[in-house]
Amino acid sequence: MAPSPSSLIVALSGLSSTGKSTIASHLPSIFLRPQYAVTILHVDDFYKPQAELPHREGLLDWDCAGSLDWPWLEAVVKKRKDGGSVGEGNVNPQPEFIGGADGEGGVAQTLVEELRNEVESSISWANPKTEAPQRILVLDGFLLFTPSVPLTFRTLLDLKILLRAPYAEAKRRREARSGYTTMEGWWEDPPGYFDKVVWPNYVEENRGFFVGGNVEGRVDEEVCGKESVRVRMEMDGGLGEVLRWVVGEVRRVLERRGG
Hints:
This protein has helices at 20-30, 70-81, 109-122, 151-154, 167-176, 193-206, 221-227, 239-257; strands spanning 8-14, 36-42, 55-56, 59-60, 91-92, 134-140, 159-163, 180-182, 185-187, 229-231. By secondary structure, it is α/β, with parallel strands linked by helices. α1 packs across α8 (239-257).
């Protein structure tokens, strides 16, 4: 079976500072051309203007569904899913960077090479290399498939992955950052931002995926199965193990599609 002309849409979501951007940045080095063509779309590039952002606890809220321009993001993703190209400025077709904005620490290059070799060895050689590559669009964002996200957007997603981190570790990582580049300039988290904005938003949006609403507890497999959400069960173990797991999830879906 030839690869689908449409893109496989992979949503990497989760709490801030769980390694989403780092994981995403390695996927083009693992799913190589000519069999695959990986594009990364950073959802942070789809914020509304700062003047239109909602507030929480008297602070600007960059970490809720209301902060994003969903019609714009949905139009871009739908165009890609339908086989079209996406505009410049919001995508990184073949990232050259290693690492990323999220999380900390690196992923050993030897692991990237190991995973690349595993993917290459699993390719069905019944498909000539001259065929069009299987296109993969990786969405890197803090909020992609929770209840506040428009249903029309959620239905575009082929693989929904939720990455986790313990509260204390995520807070330490977030507060260690110097700031963020925005359309208007530069943003630095004000004191207490993680506890007043980031963490409460994450809990409210994701509690339904966990038993008893405890986001640091057990995954509710029945709910996640119904919503087709894949959750990294272990909350630690290093980014290398998280990358290995994500690659396995992508391969699982590709095999179902015949790629």
